[in-house]
Amino acid sequence: MAFLEGCATALITPFKEDGVDLESYGEIIEAQLMGGVDALVVLGTTGEPATMSEREREETISFAVKTVHGRAKVIVGVGSNSTPHAEENARMAERLGADGLLAVTPYYNKCTQAGLLAYYEAISAASPLPLIAYNVPGRTGVNLLPETAERLAEIPSLVGIKEASGNMAQVMETMRRIRGKIELYSGEDALNFPILAVGGSAVISVVSNLFPAEVKALTRLIAEGKLKEAARLSDLLLPVARACFAEVNPIPVKEGMNLLGFRAGLPRAPLTSLEPAHRAELLSAIETFRKEYIS
Fold first, then answer.
1. CB-based contacts of 55, cutoff 8 Å, min separation 6
2. Among 186, 198, 268, 295, which residue's beta carbon has the most beta carbons within 10 A?
3. Helix, strand, coil proportions of the chain in percent (round to 5)?
4. How far, CA to CA in Å, does 35 sit from each of 31, 52, 87?
5. CATH 3.20.20.70, applies to 6-225
6. What is the dihedral of CA 141, 42, 239, 200, to 10 degrees?
7. Which positions are catalytic?
8. Which residues in the chain land under pLDDT 70?
């Protein structure tokens, strides 16, 4: 049985001046669960953990686990550019009741492929929780290659790879090498349709912060083989995805949540508020999608 199928949302973290806005976070979590998502990713890149204190991260994980209360999987981002720190994060997530771990490749250090293998082996040894490797070279400066993915499949607790390289040829080669061994997840909303179509079992989505039920519907349609309907929905979601990445994530999606009536607040420095032209683009994409699909 797959560890993750369907839609997982890479959750934003709403902040107030003195810390995490837990009241708003609870409202966001409940909206996601009402939308039918299968999992929530807490403190992934979208959750801005790099700007949070240890106390804030622990508080956020604990709150999410207690709020979800088994209604969906809670997967916690534990990656770091320090392997010992990633190990500590994994142990903390396990202690606080997480269902799984998501570990981005080490950023800035630009380690070798052998270093990537050692990194994931160390995290796996630190906690028995299901572990997902996250490949996003545009942010980290290192690319997890298909042959390395095949080796990662030998790590007992490693259940899947979140792919956000943007290179479909690489994605397909990774899928070929890991098929039947571990799972592949789309980590790039613009490529959700093709990644699921070649065998991906789930999406880990930014756009589903805004439209959880609709992104979940996309995954269901593809799983059911209703590709024509899925293609129409994918076509309508693509402008939203494009607007959500007009600036670095999570700047646009947090503003999108504000536009939808949630108290998402602003991203933490050094990230800034969304520029007016991009805000207009995002608002137009949201309104058009709601008009053409939801209504």
1. none
2. 186
3. 50, 15, 35
4. 6, 27, 33
5. yes
6. 80
7. 134, 162
8. 295
